[in-house]
Design a protein that fits this description.
Rossmann fold, PPK2-related, globular
Length: about 290
């Protein structure tokens, strides 16, 4: 399998999504890609066990992408080897009445990972500068002082949100949460094909909503908002990775590989050592247990 340098996915300078490929050639079969993914997720699982014992870092994985980009299946395939206690998936949909009584980041704070664990955000706090920007009338549900109509939502309002998100991520990373953000970069044609498959395959019909077509009509608006959000919030402490998503198997492998390689940079993550007194008496403890009948 072609060795891909995942650093090319990391956003370190201003990008234009139209210039970034949605498909990458890994020069291998689907079977080999699955085998590589299997190896990678097993390594990730072992690393998470070590992180659980180390108990100093939490990991926040953020997944964003257009409808049908493959977020759900990616979560299933990348994290399937994890101990159930080690990973929690949060899918953020339209805020409920309780969530709307708080600021827009409140529900995301509540879902942050405990030390030693992973939280996966399937759609994230970035929805607050994406879907709400394409549909600014949604902001009115938040009952924000001075925002009484869509006309009150100025460019400065969005700049403030970007600043708040950057501050949020800076705060949590300085307190032990490792943040990795992935944009699954799907082409409009591939989305069309996936929506058609939902309609043509009976067992997948339930995934289709007429609203998918309405949102598809706003494709260019979403691309513009994603591009600006990524450019304004990809920081060294909380980087964005743009992952070609037209091939699901390749996309899953690249996300898993990136997570593993980034976490392996934290060389201080080690299993805690036994206290010297316990070490000195291991033989005695073993003999005691072995002698029980």
């Amino acid at each position: 399998m072609k060795n891909i340098d995942t650093s090319i996915l990391k956003v370190t300078k201003s990008i234009e999504l139209k210039n970034i490929p949605t498909l990458i050639d890994v020069v291998t079969s689907e079977k080999k890609k699955e085998k590589e993914l299997q190896k990678t997720r097993e390594k990730l699982s072992k690393l998470q066990d070590k992180m659980y014992a180390h108990n100093k870092y939490g990991v926040l994985i953020c997944l964003q992408g257009m409808d049908t980009a493959g977020k759900d299946s990616l979560i299933r395939e990348v994290f399937k080897e994890f101990n159930a206690r080690g990973v929690v998936v949060h899918s953020f949909k339209t805020p409920n009445s309780t969530e709307l009584e708080h600021d827009y980041l409140w529900r995301h704070y509540l879902a942050l990972p405990e030390k030693g664990k992973f939280s996966v955000f399937n759609r994230t706090h970035y929805e607050n500068v994406l879907v709400t920007r394409v549909h600014p009338n949604y902001i009115l549900n938040e009952n924000i002082p001075s925002i009484n109509s869509v006309e009150d939502i100025t460019p400065a309002f969005w700049e403030n949100r970007f600043e708040s998100i950057n501050a949020f991520e800076k705060h949590i990373t300085s307190n032990g949460i490792i943040v990795l953000k992935f944009y699954l970069h799907l082409s409009k044609e591939e989305q069309r094909q996936r929506l058609l498959r939902r309609l043509e395959t009976e067992k997948h019909n339930w995934k289709f909503s007429p609203g998918d077509l309405k949102e598809r009509e706003l494709w260019d608006d979403y691309q513009k908002c994603y591009e600006e959000a990524i450019n304004k919030t990809s920081k060294e402490h909380a980087p964005w990775y743009i992952v070609p998503a037209d091939n699901k198997e390749t996309c899953r492998y690249l996300v898993a590989k990136t997570i593993l390689e980034e976490l392996q940079k934290y060389t201080d993550i080690k299993e805690p050592e036994l206290e010297q007194e316990v070490k000195d008496n291991i033989k005695m403890y073993h003999e005691k247990l072995a002698s029980e009948q």
